[in-house]
Amino acid sequence: LAAEKLAERDGLRVSRETLRSWMVDAGLWLSRKQRRTFHQPRLRREAYGELVQIDGSEHRWFEDRGPACSLLVFVDDATGKLMQLRFVRSESAFSYFEALELYLKDHGAPVAFYSDKHSVFRVAKKDAKGGQGMTQFGRALCELNIEILCANSSQAKGRVERMNRTLQDRLVKELRLAGISGMDDGNAFLSGFIERYNGRFAIVPTRSDNLHRPMNLASDRLKEILCKREQRYVGAQLTFSFERQRIMLEETEVTRGLVGRYVETYAFADGRLDVRWKGYSLPYKVFDKDQRVTHAAIIENKRLGDVLAYIKERQEQQTRPKVKSNSEKNGYTPRGRKPGRKTDFMDDPAVIARREKALLRQPAAE
After folding, report:
1. Residue 344 resides in a domain
2. Do 170 and 63 share a structural domain?
3. Residues 28 and 112 occupy one common structural domain
4. I need a labelling partner for 307 at 20 to 30 A (CA). Which of 6, 23, 230, 291 fits?
5. Are residues 20 and 125 in the same domain?
6. What does residue 105 show for φ and ψ, rounded to 5 degrees?
7. End-to-end CA distance of the chain
8. Mean per-residue pLDDT, 186-214
9. Side-chain half-sphere of 235: how many Cα atoms within 13 Å?
10. For residue 136, is it within any domain?
11. Distance of alpha carbon 314 from alpha carbon 292, whole angstroms
12. Which band of pLDDT confidence, cut at 50, 70 and 90, is reported for residue 300?
């Protein structure tokens, strides 16, 4: 670039290698080897359960025996132990809720989780409306008194990144030897794999104490925490929008006073939706809107595979989307003929038949 600019701006034509040697002598040029930067390795945390690194790795875990999917990986920073593995279709709030519930039942609550800047863990927009500046996963961890920290680079959470590479080699071969080709069988296989792996590679932490805290929560209470909760504004007709659907509250003594107020929605992983007002469940009806779910949707890279699989399933069910005209939306039913006088009446069979009868009635010409 310097040689090009000398020629363009100053008319001095010097070969780039000559110019490079001059810059080396002047201390202005460093070789690629000299320009290399090295990341200082971060020391491990001292206690087990103090910091747990989490990440998702999308890969063809079952090679050509099954579709690609994501593996959620939980690694303890102090010991390098595999704490939790879970095959899921993609990284989403519900998939992390499922893995977190298993983690809490097996180990208890750690001090903090350490993740990347995926939208499951971090709100990208600083001025985002609602949510108190945290994601659904972050809100659940806040209620469970667990901290979530986001790494500024992939090198900062290098232990779980290196674990992903190890699993993409070692776990893939283990699955091949076991003849496993699906997520359900794979998840059943993972508990034994974790035990064998930790027995060989886990290290002893600097401190012997375990910082995991027991979870003294009822199962129903935990499920209410590990779900998507949002506030929705109730309109004049006791309706509100939710996930491209229209929700209408049934009129009761409680719901009559909710116009202009906010209700709370509880969306669970199994598809159930609960609408509540101050802890009281409200009866409702769902009215679907006739629009395509994925039309002009903004899709994150890590969810692209899951979304494309859903689109393919929809396309197989319906080869061509039905687009309603304005007349159809207004309830018009075609009657088989256009209104008004027919323009091509001479070819109408009824007109031809009447003309032939009229000709037969006329007397024969002399």
Report:
1. no
2. yes
3. no
4. 230
5. no
6. -70, -35
7. 108
8. 94
9. 8
10. yes
11. 10
12. low
Residue bearing tokens 């279709």: 89
Per-residue exposure over 113-145, b if at least 16 CB sit within 10 Å of its own CB, e if not: bbbbebebbbeeeeeeeeeeebbbbbbbbeebe
Distance CA 28, CA 258 (A): 71
Q: Could you list the residue range(s) of the whole structural domain that residue 233 is in?
A: 227-294+301-321
Instruction: For residues 191 and 93, state if they share a domain.
Output: yes
**From residue 366, how far is each of 62, 358, 359, 362, 363 by CA, in Å?**
97, 18, 16, 12, 9
Task: Specify whether the CB–CB gap between 62 and 175 falls below 8 A.
Answer: yes
Measured distance CA(84)–CA(54) in Å, rounded: 9
What local confidence, expressed as pLDDT, does residue 348 receive? 67
Q: Are 154 and 66 found together in one domain?
A: yes
Q: Are 176 and 63 in contact (CB under 8 A)?
A: yes
Q: Residue 49's closest CA among 135, 119, 107?
A: 107
Q: What is the three-state SS of 206-238?
A: CCCCECCECCCCCHHHHHHHCCEEEEEECCCCC
Residue 139 is encoded by which pair of tokens?
């809100």
Is residue 238 scored above 60 in pLDDT?
yes
Average pLDDT across the chain, whole number: 84
As separate numbers, helices (DSSP H) first and strands (DSSP E) second, the chain gives 11, 12
Q: Are 62 and 181 in contact (CB under 8 A)?
A: yes
Mind giving me the DSSP string for 263-316? EEEEE-TTS-EEEEETTEE--EEEEE-SS-TTTT----GGGHHHHHHHHHHHHH
Q: CATH code at 66?
A: 3.30.420.10
Structurally, the chain folds into a number of domains equal to 3
